[in-house]
User: Fold UDP-N-acetylglucosamine 1-carboxyvinyltransferase from Cinnamomum micranthum f. kanehirae.
Amino acid sequence: MSSMLLVAPSLALCNLQNPKLPKSLSKTPPPPLSLKPQTTLQTLSHHLIISGPSHLSGHVRISGSKNSALPVLAAALCCSEGGPSILRGIPDLSDVTTMISILRSLGAQIEVEDGGVVVVDAEGIGSVEPCSDSVGRIRAGFFVVGPLVGRFGEAVVALPGGCEIGSRPIDLYVRGLRALSAVVEVRHGKLHVYAANGKGLIGGRFHFDYPSVGATETLMMAASVANGVTVLTNAAQEPEVTDLARFLVASGASIEGAGTSTVIISGRKKLHGTEFTIIPDRIEAGTFMVAAAITRSCISMSPVIPHHLTCVINKLSSSGCKITQRGSHLLEVSAISAAGSNLEAFDFKTCPYPGFPTDLQPQFMALLATCNGAGIVEESVFEGRMRHVGELQKLGAKIETFGNSAVAWGNGQSALSGSHVVATDLRAGASLVLAGMAAQGTTEIAGAPHIDRGYEKLEVKLHLLGANIRREQQALSKAFK
Assistant:
């Protein structure tokens, strides 16, 4: 099998100039932080315990994409004939379990088989209102509004839940559905949607003010079973959007332009069941790439789709990592330097694909705390995605925030030390695991269920690579002021 050194192609959105820096923001390290102990109101039962520092080696298998599996599961509701949809590569995640419960609450017959296979029979759907409690637990639960109103002409769906990483309004969903001749009303915490003609949706044109992934996917599903042609402009271009389009086309839909800013959908009266395999999770792959870098180790991973990781490859390569593609779906990441040099800091700004993914921002910020020099981070997707900074600071990370921007300082070596921290959301939890592996001593991370929402057996995979990590379940107890 041939091997080659990966040199990522030039990409304007990835090879960004230094993000714009507020005048008050400089690359001069701040004075030592004085952190006051904080009292939490709740003690979580599942904790991850990490003894560091870790050195990793070996191979890790990347799971199917969470952000593809959830909309594809929802899209199976569009399939009203031709047998069940057989979905492969579905990751074993708590969010997937919740989505399955949402589909079952609508009347779908679902079988979960070994090896990541989920069989969805949606022919006998008997309800257009899913379980509100389940929808409220994950934002992806809101995806079902598209298939339901497209197929049945009506839907009643609770407003979505998910990680608390800033406001994620549903106005694009609402305006997009109205462009397909739907009447949309919000009453008592639920979205009531029905076709204005009393029969079904009608194709239309809609321009996204912002290329929202969720809104693009929801309208693609609805338009696939609408009457007529729908044109979506400034649509999201993420690989997960393309994967959803592949599933819908395999089910009989007509979609052109998925993966570009203009998507054209010709509605079909009915879609049918099919067999489909989910793409590998690029965010999990990126997290393991950072794991190799932050522990100054060398690991390989598969399956991956390298061009989905262009920005990640660019940044890690510029820092000093060696990334080699071996075969079409295997990457080797090495942060071990024979010359003894260390990783250099870098700047990045999150933005929609093909730009740097916001879901990897916390992990890369943890890495910057161990690099040589200062790196500037600008978060442009979610305004509330800096909650992990305070927890990283508890581990000794030198990070200063200014609104949605931050500067992280390092001296080329890990100055992190173990502490008790809390995972405030899914990707924040992943950043703490990475930092814990680079820290001296023991790190205890509360809130492990957040991590379980998006990483399949993360601690097991890391343990097999050599990390000293385990899970503990502790009894709930009250916390006092």
Observations:
- The radius of gyration is 23 Å.
- The chain has 14 helices and 26 strands.
- Confidence is low (pLDDT under 50) at residues 7-18, 33-37, 162-167.
- The longest strand covers residues 46-52.
